[in-house]
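Hi U.,

Before I forget, here's the chain from the pilot set. I'm dumping it here mostly so it's searchable later in email.
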Amino acid sequence: MSEPVYTPRGATEADRESLRALVGEVFRSTLMDEYPQLYHAETLGNCRVVEVGGRLVSHVGMTVQDAAIYGCRVRVACIGGVATHPDHRGAGHASACLDDAMSVARDSGTDIMMISGDRSLYRRAGCRKVGEDYSLSLSGDAAALLDHSGLTLRDATVGDIPTLRALHHSEPLHWKRDSDTWRRALECRQVMNRKSRFVVVEEYGAAAGYFIAQVVDDSETHLQVSEYAGDRARMLRAFAAHVADTGAPGIRWHVSGGDAFGLAAADAAGARQRESTTSGTYIVLDLAQLIDRMRPYLTEYLGSGANRLRVESVGDGYRFDLDGDTHDVPDIGGAAHFVFGTREERPTAAPPSGPLADAFPIPALWYGLNYV
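Structure:
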């Protein structure tokens, strides 16, 4: 007989050790310690769990936080640590937890959900890879040609939080992080599944940028930058300085498709460029609400027409309508492709021209230290 599906609920402090045992068995024993953003006391209740026989057997971790996309505030749920005990798989517990997480997120006014993975469980829910972005890499030889004299690199401390926050806030795509979020990350120093260094970049006696780069023991591995902020030409020089300091064979980082100067500067420095999506997968939880939140940004492309842009349900899909210029998508996954763009195959092509083609896609957020 198949196991019944139990009703998910929010995790509590009383669940902490049972949850540690579950994710420790499915992933690794240190997982909860590596993700304090997900498992600290104030957000633990967002994690959806199923209890069977007095122990937790399934878990979908969730944080809910605001972010800014070109000045427009959006609410984002981040999903990670999705786990079901091997003895309880196939009963639908993970699907129930994910459905519950989406319901809780919607009730809190969340616009989009980012999931740090891509598998059938997420695809069935409507998650898709989005973003028309790039992954860049700079070899050690190319880095050696960049002049990084005048730059000072040092490890960040908790005392640098105001500086890090200000630099991050200056980015056109950024998260609304409080001091505790920064502090937990600096104390843990685990970002996007990698043990990491937080590096402040200084020039002329002042902080000019920062980056977070993985710490590796393998001298054959390129360093991976999980987050950075600052003038792009200067950050390239900082990356080169870091390669020289560490002796690494090269360095990799992500660039938003909207960062034209960042791409141009990297190209001029000899960086290799590969098309990419943003990390993980996206699902749009409330399409009409997301469009409403993004209207100030859309006004820059559509003028007063941004206020006339409408989204309506058409069968299982949606229709974007601007004064009779329409674009249909077959489902919520297609909506994510249209709104944020994508590199993967899409069920309907993007409009080749017209006002909707001018306004979309909207640049997609990158996780950085918000990864769970």
